[in-house]
Specification:
10 helices; 267 residues; binds flavin-adenine dinucleotide; alpha+beta; 28% strand; Uridine Diphospho-n-acetylenolpyruvylglucosamine Reductase, domain 2; Enolase-like, domain 1; Uridine Diphospho-n-acetylenolpyruvylglucosamine Reductase, domain 3
Length: 267
């Protein structure tokens, strides 16, 4: 059971950060995950008065406040225009609408959960995290940091001419994924570059970058070689949802489908 002694609605990020330095203090997002744990929290810090619940868009970036809900992300028109339905696809299996109206982007990324669809999807894009103390760093770097006492302020996705696809396999609707996969491609310094993010391996998502010029009319057999090569670069583990071997096979299939879909769009 979770017990909380003291609740504070922070008036500034500075206050939230200071309070969070105490050993038994915790920042709260939507509390959807935390409430299921066993912990004695001395002070719980609520960020909901700090204006972090907006998605801002300009010519260069999307800036997603840590207190934005997963539902806001799922429904954002600008993100849909830029990436089609891929982001919504990554989110809509997560429990249900009421749940996604409460779970936050900050809690989802800060948690660095192995099963995270949110992390898998955002990792494939040109994504940064803004930390109160640690500055703005790449999500791919943050994901390997140990959990500390910093505060995640926002997620920043740099806009560029990239195509995104997302897919996952679940044993039943709304369960954790057995495997999650995002594929992105676009020109980087004039070279066609592919990004593959595979999560729920069951370890947390990791990203792979490949400079591959792939002809749009490539045969299925040839594309399968690329997909197998990409999938083989990740490590996989076994748990109650699937074996390492099965997960690698799923990764090959999901990567192949996403690559094919991206290539077909460009025809
Ligand atoms: C039953 C269940 C099923 C789920 N299924 C899936 C799924 O299939 N796919 C998926 O991707 N996710 C899934 N999730 C995870 C969910 O989507 C959220 O990621 C999770 O609930 C955390 O978000 P939250 O806002 O509730 O964070 P909280 O539970 O409030 O916090 C989580 C952690 O993050 C810290 N934290 C929160 N915000 C900040 C911040 N701004 N700065 C620093 N630290 C912060 C908290 O201190 C805590 O340690 C599931 C969760 C549950 C409970």
């Amino acid at each position: 059971m979770l017990t909380i002694n003291n609740y504070v609605k922070a008036k500034s990020l500075e206050e939230a950060y200071e309070l969070n330095q105490a050993r038994n203090a915790r920042v709260m997002g939507g509390m959807m995950w935390m409430r299921l744990g066993n912990a004695k929290v001395q002070t719980i810090i609520d960020l909901s008065d700090l204006g972090l619940d907006q998605i801002e868009e300009n010519d260069h970036v999307f800036k997603i406040g840590a207190m934005c809900t997963l539902r806001q992300l799922e429904q954002h028109e600008g993100l849909r225009e830029m990436y089609g339905d891929a982001i919504a696809k990554a989110l809509h299996h997560i429990v249900g609408v009421q749940f996604r109206n409460q779970a936050t982007v900050g809690g989802s990324i800060y948690g660095r959960f192995g099963f995270s669809d949110v992390l898998t999807c955002l990792l494939a894009l040109d994504t940064f995290v803004e930390l109160y103390n640690g500055g703005t760093i790449r999500l791919s770097e943050f994901v390997n940091h140990k959990s500390d006492k910093d505060i995640l302020v926002s997620i920043i996705i740099r806009k560029s001419n990239r195509k995104l696809r997302y897919d996952s396999i679940r044993q039943t609707k709304t369960d954790f994924p057995v495997l999650a996969c995002a594929v992105v491609t676009g020109p980087v310094h004039g070279k066609e570059t592919w990004y593959f993010s595979v999560g729920a391996r069951p370890m947390k998502a990791a990203v792979l970058e490949k400079e591959w010029e792939i002809p749009k009319d490539i045969s299925d057999e040839q594309l399968e070689i690329y997909a197998k090569e990409a999938a083989s670069q990740f490590t996989y583990g076994t748990n109650m949802r699937g074996s390492a071997k099965y997960r690698q096979h799923l990764a090959e299939v999901l990567i192949l489908r996403s690559m094919r879909s991206i290539l077909e769009e460009g025809r």
